[in-house]
Design brief:
7-stranded parallel sheet, two-stranded antiparallel sheet, 18 helices, binds nicotinamide-adenine-dinucleotide, binds zinc ion
């Protein structure tokens, strides 16, 4: 008789390291940053670079591609451009069609991109999530440089470890945790954003401030109108702080790849993700997050957790930034509460929802009372009807009111 085979316990650690850079005019031939990023692991011949480009960014920055070509021609010692860029019309629909991932993977194959080459994804959060997933799965992961061109992407979507697309009516159902090789934030992309996409990313800044940094919330509160009025220098500060808080959480929060059931950075997101879907993706992610923050803050107040004064400050700040606080598509009968089920299923384990007991102080709970969600929606609806909550400042401005 052979003795029973003992279990072999596998145990190893992998550490990740990547930089998030901040610059202007990234592809000016005189700017060494991109060349330094490409040359960071210099060994062997200059790596190939495949560019996946957001048509929206390209349309508003028509010199972008010629500048990239000129930049790569000037620095043949660090990079070989793998042909023309792969262009996609930006926006959430990019994440709703799995064929787009296939197109990026095909281009990676056709260009002979290997695990020592680079894919640069240049665009909004949707393009970067989609192209990032394709890069994470081709050859089990090729190097990805993210060059985000929206506030949302620079402050949040591009800087972390999550890549993915939507499927089966659910946001980010298919995806992979894969840290990038580097992230390069160029402020000069931002002035051409639509009003919606200019302010959308600030909802994530409000979110992270509310759960982690009361001083940052006060900063946002004090500068809400100037931010809505497109102050670029202020926006740079907001992006920097928001990115730093997200990065710190990923590195030091103890669960970068979300094995547990707690996901504090998804404060307000159980409703936001559901609302994006319920609106047929007509609502931007940032606008949906703002609605989710208003709802969960109101819930926290009505359950006796968040003091009235703090609750009012949150709603006023969101309004001053130009966000709506209520949307008819939020009503429970449209299926909002399915968002809770989806949220739990996405992470697995026990339902864990972040609420607030103060500005800068989150508190996790394990269920939400549907009646209190209804009451919270009622309160926001009432506020909207008295014009305190609607129309949002930005919308009024757009309509020339
Ligand atoms: N992976 C993550 O951790 C994470 C975090 C937050 C958000 N996200 C995802 O990010 C996505 C939203 O990203 P988004 O807000 O950037 O929207 P988006 O990617 O849909 O882009 C919005 C629009 O802006 C256009 N655009 C891009 N750059 C431009 C520029 N410089 N000037 C003018 N127009 C430009 C695009 O073509 C698009 O039409 C959502 O899918 C969301 O789920 C992911
Ligand atoms: Zn978000």
């Amino acid at each position: 008789m052979q003795p029973p085979l003992t279990t072999i316990q596998q145990d190893f650690q992998v550490s990740f390291r990547y930089a998030v850079h901040f610059t202007r005019d990234l592809f000016a031939v005189s700017n060494p940053l991109f060349k330094n990023v490409l040359g960071q692991d210099a060994a062997g011949p200059p790596p190939k670079l495949l560019v996946v480009l957001d048509r929206g960014a390209q349309r508003h920055h028509p010199r972008l591609w010629p500048k990239i070509e000129a930049y790569c021609r000037r620095h043949p010692e660090v990079v070989t451009l793998a042909g023309a860029p792969l262009l996609f019309e930006g926006g959430e629909h990019l994440k709703n069609n799995p064929m787009n991932v296939n197109l990026v993977q095909q281009a990676i194959h056709a260009a002979g991109i290997c695990r020592h080459s680079y894919v640069a994804a240049i665009g909004g959060g949707a393009l970067i999530d989609m192209a990032g997933f394709a890069a994470a799965t081709a050859h089990r992961g090729v190097r990805l440089i993210r060059v985000p061109t929206t506030v949302m992407a620079q402050a949040d979507a591009s800087i972390g470890v999550k890549n993915g697309i939507n499927a089966f009516g659910q946001k980010n159902f298919i995806g992979a945790f894969a840290p990038p090789a580097a992230v390069v934030n160029d402020l000069d992309f931002l002035p051409t954003l639509s009003s919606r996409d200019w302010i959308g990313g600030v909802a994530e800044a409000v979110k992270v401030a509310l759960i982690k940094d009361a001083d940052f919330f006060t900063f946002l509160e004090e500068h809400a109108e100037a931010l809505a009025d497109r102050d670029l220098a202020l926006m740079q500060q907001v992006i920097y702080r928001c990115a730093a808080l997200h990065l710190e959480h990923i590195a030091r929060g103890g669960d970068p790849f979300e094995f547990g059931s707690s996901r504090p950075l998804d404060f307000g997101h159980w409703a936001a993700h559901r609302l994006e879907h319920l609106s047929g993706y007509e609502l931007g992610h940032g606008q949906a997050v703002a609605l989710g923050l208003a709802l969960d803050s109101t819930y926290a107040h009505l359950m006796g957790l968040l003091p009235r004064g703090q609750w009012q400050r949150i709603l006023t700040t969101l309004r001053s930034l130009g966000f709506a606080l209520y949307d008819a598509r939020m009503e429970v009968e449209h299926g909002l509460l399915d968002g809770l089920k989806e949220f739990q299923q996405h992470l697995g384990g026990r339902l864990t929802i972040m609420l607030l007991w103060d500005i800068g102080q989150g508190l996790e709970v394990h269920d939400l009372d549907p009646d209190l969600v209804r009451e919270s929606l009622g309160s926001l609806k009432e506020r909207a009807a008295t014009s305190e909550g609607y129309p949002p400042r930005g919308a009024a401005k757009l309509a020339g009111m």
